[in-house]
Every structure is written in structure tokens, then in C-alpha cells.
Amino acid sequence: LDQIQKVDGQIHAFLSYDVADALAQAEAADKALAAGETHVQRPLLGVPIAIKDVLAVKNHPLNCASKILGKFTSVYDATAIEKLKAAGAVVFGRLNMDEFAMGSSTENSAFGVTRNPWDTTRIPGGSSGGSAASVAADECIASLGTDTGGSIRQPAALCGCVGLKPTYGRISRYGLVAFASSLDQIGPFTKDVRDSATLLEVMSGIDHRDSTSVPQPVPHYHTALNGNIKGLKIGLPKEYMIGGLDPQVNAAVQAAVQQLQKLGAEVVEISLPHTDYAVATYYIIATAEASANLARFDGIRYGARIDGKDPIELYSKTRGAGFGPEVKRRIILGTYVLSSGYYDAYYLRAQKVRTLIRQDFLKAFEKVDAIVTPTTPTAAFKIGEKSDDPLQMYLSDIFTISCNLAGICGLSLPCGFTTSPKLPIGLQLLGKPFGEETILKIAHAYE
Ligand code: GLN
């Protein structure tokens, strides 16, 4: 709390936090420890974890960094939050983000931008910018974010922390405000790989309240962290060596690859031939799903309302004033690609290409245990640099988006810095469906 007091005026990672509530939870953890409970039984006992403003925490505000939710307060805990609490965590604070998780820089928040702790003239990444910045600025031990097309891995890379997007279905999405339901996953931001494994283990598992959660047993991820990656095969996709890749990012990733080889991994070139179509495919599927999911914010059921002479006027006034420009852009795009006459040409086609992208990965994983790439083409850019150019902004997710389309798992971990200015660089590891153990093992051996 002292650290938040000291630095958050500059960083603005938090939208709000409740001191009394945090202290009460911490006191309860102290009492449990004094009564003989241990971290074996409750691995997160007393650990402060802050939450992206898109996840429901009972009695806490929930705004998705949007004006449309007004003074909305959650009436229940998301499953992931329930599990953190059961493991003893002190769940506190609401972290800034791009409105409804749409963006790559946290500049789309209705409540102001979050700044990168390494250089406060730069963006922290997005959409989980507050989640990454709060961990990087030592304002919490760990945080939760969500990743629909890179929103955990990209800000983790730009702020120099570890960010994990689990396999689709690994963690229940119950209590997560949906952006694109077939792509969204909850995941942890941590200072190291071991913490990432701990949080993943606590939050994973089947949940009858989310029919897309999968009845796959939850491994003890820690036991995989033994440093031994001898003989593992890691693929380097040739399609990721694109023109816009910053030379310093490229050099850091190449050095990391050499380090992995020194540790005994075998690195081979692979091909993911449909990579070029990932960004276009994503922006059709994600906007289509978003336009349907966001229909519920109508001024009747949740949050803010502006009255009108009839329901239609009420809806349009509320939505017109409540949603920011990027959210409106996506709703319009999404309703367009779903409209009759265009559905087959855009949405259906995108679904087919999505299958091809997934097949690329499944084929590659017949030959390799994991895939290594840069997380982002460049280090953190300046605030305002891309905010007027949505296409440039969309392209900054070029390395992270395919993972969500394929439903596989991925993580980003620090692999060096650029020089003047000194900014963190992220290494991305992609794993098979439910192959989190392998990417955590590799990341831990490298770290
Ligand atoms: N930057 C991407 C987008 O704007 C991804 C966002 C996300 O993962 N939530 O859609």
C-alpha cells in the first residue's frame, strides 16, 4: 500500500483500491498463519494480488474501464477469484485497461492512460496495461489479466514481467466480462515463472458454470520446474522473421535461442504458413463476438442510463455516450461482418481460416515440444504514437494473436533490454493445448 501511495500517481495502474478491505484480508491471513495454517495448504496465504477491471470481485466496482457501467458493483466472485481467495490471497484493487479489453496500449481506457514504469512517456502495452505496470512497479506481488489476442503477453513483454495465457478452457471464464468468448482467457502476471506456475495451478480446472472449461486434470506445475530441458525440441517459425521486427528485439531473441540450445534444447526451423492471415482473421472473429457480447449494455440491465422518449432512444443515447470510440468501431465492424449478405464472405471465411491456423500449430507440434518467437515486434512505444492509427495498433499484436485463434497456451518472459532508452524485451513461448508444463519448464530453465 505504501508503494502504491508512492508511485501510482505517476503510473496510474490502479483505478481504485479499498485500503480497509485489503488490511482486513491481510489480518485474516495473519490469523490463519498464527493458527498453524501453512502455505502447503493455502499457497497464496497473505499474498496481495490485484485484478484487471474486467473480472468480478464481490462488492468491488466493475467498470471494464468504461463509462457505460456507471457505478456498477459485482454481486459475486468470478471462479478464478473464488479460487484465489480459497488459496488465501489478499484480492485487492481494480487495475486499468483498454475499455472492454479492446486495445494494445491502455490508451483506450475511459479513465486515463497507464504509464510504463520503465519510461513514463511510454505505454505499458494493453489491454491489461494496469496488470503489467502494477507488477513491474512493485505495487503488488502478482496480478490477473485477460488475453483475447495478446493482452497478457504483450504488456508483460513491454513491462518486463512474466505473463501467461493458458490454453482455452484451462481456467473458467465465469465472472469475466466477455469480449470475444471463443478467444478470451484469464491468466497471471508475475515477477517470475515459479509464481506463474503457482497461480495457474490455483486457478485451473473444470467449472460447471463455464461449459467451455475442460475436465483435464490439473498438474502440479511446480514439479515440472526442474531446470532440465535436455532433448526438448523447440521450433522457430520462419514466418515470424518479419520486416517490422526491431533489430534489438531480434538480437535479444536470437541470444535467448542460443541460451536454450546451451541448456540442451534442440532448436529447429518450422513453418506456420497461414501466419499472414492471423490479424485479419482475428479482427473479424473478435469484433463479431464483441458486437454480440456488448449488446447487453443497453442502459436497462446494468450501470449508466440516459433516458429517452422510447426504448430505442434510451439505448442509443446510453450507448452513444457510454462507449468510447474504439469500442464503437469494433461494434460497427462486428455487426457488419455478421450482417446477412456478408456473413459467408467474412465471418464464415474467417472461421475456416481460423481452422487452418490451428492446424498449422497442431502439425508443428507433431515435430516440436514448444515454439519460440519474439512477443512483440518492438519495445514499448510512446504514448500517443499509434493512437490515431488503428491499423498500426492492430499490427503490434502480430505475434500473439495466432495463439488465441488456435486455442493453445503461450507465455512471455523477459529476455533482455533495448539500449537508450533501456526498455524490456519479451520472449514468447507457445505450447500445445494443455502443454503449460512444458512452456513453464522451458521458461524456468531459461530465467
Ligand atoms: N490488442 C488486441 C485487441 O485490441 C488484443 C486485446 C486482448 O487480448 N484483449 O483486440
From TrEMBL:
Pfam families referenced in this protein's UniProt entry, alphabetically: Amidase (PF01425)
Keyword Hydrolase: yes
GO cellular component: glutamyl-tRNA(Gln) amidotransferase complex
Record's catalysed reaction(s): L-glutamyl-tRNA(Gln) + L-glutamine + ATP + H2O = L-glutaminyl-tRNA(Gln) + L-glutamate + ADP + phosphate + H(+)
Gene Ontology biological process terms from the UniProt entry: translation
Active site: K52, S127, S151
Signal peptide: none
InterPro entries: Amidase (IPR000120), Amidase_CS (IPR020556), Amidase_dom (IPR023631), AS_sf (IPR036928), GatA (IPR004412)
Broad EC category: ligase
UniProt subunit comment: Heterotrimer of A, B and C subunits.
Function: Allows the formation of correctly charged Gln-tRNA(Gln) through the transamidation of misacylated Glu-tRNA(Gln) in organisms which lack glutaminyl-tRNA synthetase. The reaction takes place in the presence of glutamine and ATP through an activated gamma-phospho-Glu-tRNA(Gln).
Name listed for the protein in its UniProt record: Glutamyl-tRNA(Gln) amidotransferase subunit A
